[in-house]
Amino acid sequence: GLVPHKGCCLGCHQDPNSMAGEPRHVVILGGGVSGLAAAHYCQTEFGDAVKVTLLEASNTFGGWCQTEPRVSACPAAFLERGPRSFRAANGDPTFRLVHELGMEEELMPANRSMCGSRFVFLGGRLVRLGLVSALRYIGIINIVREMFVPKRTHSEDEDESVDAWAHRRFGGGLATLLSAMLTGVYAGDSATLSVQSVLPILVQYERDYGSLVLGGLWSMCSGLVSGVISRLTAVLQQLMGRPPTPVAAVDRFVAHCKRQTLAYSFRRGIGCLAQRLAERVRTAGGADLLLNCKATHLELPGPGPGPVLVHAQDRDHNPLSFQADHVISTLPAYALAEVLDRSVLAAAPHTVLADCSAALWSIPFQSVAVVGLCLRSPEGCPVLPEHQGFGYLIPQTEGQPILGTLMESLTFPSAQPKEITRLTVMMKPPGPINNRTWPHEQPLDHLISLVHGAMHKHLGLCFAKGQSAAGMSFSVLWTQILLHNHCIPQYT
Ligand SMILES: Cc1cc2nc3c(=O)[nH]c(=O)nc-3n(C[C@H](O)[C@H](O)[C@H](O)COP(=O)(O)OP(=O)(O)OC[C@H]3O[C@@H](n4cnc5c(N)ncnc54)[C@H](O)[C@@H]3O)c2cc1C
């Protein structure tokens, strides 16, 4: 989700609330959406009891959560650098944040039917993925059989890849579908991603119920029962003339958002969430948000409580330092590992830090290209109606040059005029993940021709002729390519 919880806290361990007198100094490393959210929640939870300093290495806040400036030829269309939407089902923390920031009007609901219409590229064609087609693809016999597959206990030392887990319990059908799904979330390979790390619910159901099917049935039934009980309680309260339990405005807002549709974005792009967070933290007072300020190393006093000295440098490499009671890191794993490595060198040897940094370095990161296509077609979207929806994902086994395509203008029709179609294609560098980056001189023409080839094959859009399989003509308003290195962690 967009309000991550991955930050790790270094330094002394007292509750800032419990400390009388001087405000506690919290230094936050990283000004992406996690760092900004951490600063915001420090302020709202602890008020004057804390002073926050946030250090961001780049010249802008938001990290991956940024919207590229609108292209002047087409003012209604923009390109998201990283995230472009979030799911309503697990969006509670994001909705609450939106409410706290007064951004309710900026929230942009997805078209429900388009959002529910998702495809997988299987056997050389797009297949709409509904519950029935998914069950059929997995195989009813495999689903029944899964309830009798002996359970296996997972531990930190005994892990399994998602692909191996799916093959062991259900066979190849589910393995292929999960491969497509993880392409969408991690741009990763289900044969290497750890099932415990990326889909812990599968492991939890196997451990607790002996089977995913039994666990799923059990939680469905208990959900139904608790729904019925809460309805009955409300009806009884009404019959007895008792006023209904008051619901806070924020809870009403969250419930409304979750009922309304399946996914959301923001009218001016998702980057506005990070920008608004930064504004709010600044105006709330008691916080310094520093751009162009790169954390370099920490001086820790020792294993016990005590202040931490955070060293950083500004744009001109001038050294800066901050004495912190608490340090919250929201840096990507490799950036924190670099900081910890230097910390070990700067201070006395500290095995805990060395172990942490080794663990952080061991997390590979995937590089991704985001290719934005903006098409104009006076007759509307040139994609065949039967292929219109949220987009499609491609399992590794299909051997395609792209990971998948998002049909953003169909998902968010209010973001641009009807004649504009926005598609976003995701790609990764060829070969295994292995921390591969895009070559310095990556020929962009080559990427564009791969994308055009894929669009022709998958969606029937012929860019050479400006004609679609639906018989519509279209022109390309702009193509924008963003090459991101080391942007998505792979928990293998
Ligand atoms: C292409 C792409 C598509 C995505 N799509 C979605 C989506 O659709 N939905 C969704 O929910 N999520 C999506 N995500 C994931 C989402 O973007 C991330 O989970 C989220 O943005 C992470 O935010 P963060 O603040 O934790 O980290 P980051 O955004 O990585 O921020 C870390 C910050 O730390 C700064 N930094 C680094 N080193 C230092 C240092 N030494 N000192 C100080 N600062 C430093 C960086 O400059 C950066 O600003 C996507 C990600 C990518 C890359």
UniProtKB/TrEMBL annotation:
Residues 33-428 form the Amine oxidase domain. GO terms for cellular component: mitochondrial inner membrane. Gene3D superfamilies: FAD/NAD(P)-binding domain. Coiled coil: none annotated. GO terms for biological process: protoporphyrinogen IX biosynthetic process. Binds 1 FAD per subunit. Its EC number is 1.3.3.4. The keyword Oxidoreductase applies. Keywords: FAD, Flavoprotein, Heme biosynthesis, Oxidoreductase, Porphyrin biosynthesis. It holds the Pfam family Amino_oxidase. InterPro entries: Amino_oxidase, FAD/NAD-bd_sf, Protoporphyrinogen_oxidase, Zeta_carotene_desat/Oxidored. Its main location: mitochondrion. It is found in: Mitochondrion inner membrane. Pathway: Porphyrin-containing compound metabolism; protoporphyrin-IX biosynthesis; protoporphyrin-IX from protoporphyrinogen-IX: step 1/1. It comes from the Eukaryota. Belongs to the protoporphyrinogen/coproporphyrinogen oxidase family. Protoporphyrinogen oxidase subfamily. PANTHER family: PROTOPORPHYRINOGEN OXIDASE. Catalyzes the 6-electron oxidation of protoporphyrinogen-IX to form protoporphyrin-IX. This is Protoporphyrinogen oxidase. It comes from Eutreptiella gymnastica.
